[in-house]
Design goal:
By secondary structure, the protein is mainly alpha-helical. The chain has one domain. It has two helices and two strands. Strands 1-2 form a two-stranded antiparallel ribbon. The longest helix has 16 residues. The protein is globular. The structure holds zinc ion. Zinc ion binds next to helix 1. Zinc ion (ZN) binds next to helix 1.
């Protein structure tokens, strides 16, 4: 199951998420980014996010 740890992006943030598919995980990450960090990941950000998805 793909998982994401916000700290891996260099954020001082305890958020972790996992989902059955990478697409669903990306939805959760996008929502978290908006709510917790007030940002909308752009293309470069997504490339960085994908490198830390395990
Ligand atoms: Zn975060």
């Amino acid at each position: 199951m793909p998982s994401f740890v916000c700290k891996d992006l260099g954020m001082d943030c305890p958020f972790t998420a996992s989902a059955p598919t990478e697409a669903e995980l990306e939805k959760k990450i996008a929502e978290h980014a908006r709510k917790a960090h007030n940002l909308n990941p752009d293309k470069d950000m997504w490339m960085k996010i994908k490198t830390v998805i395990k």
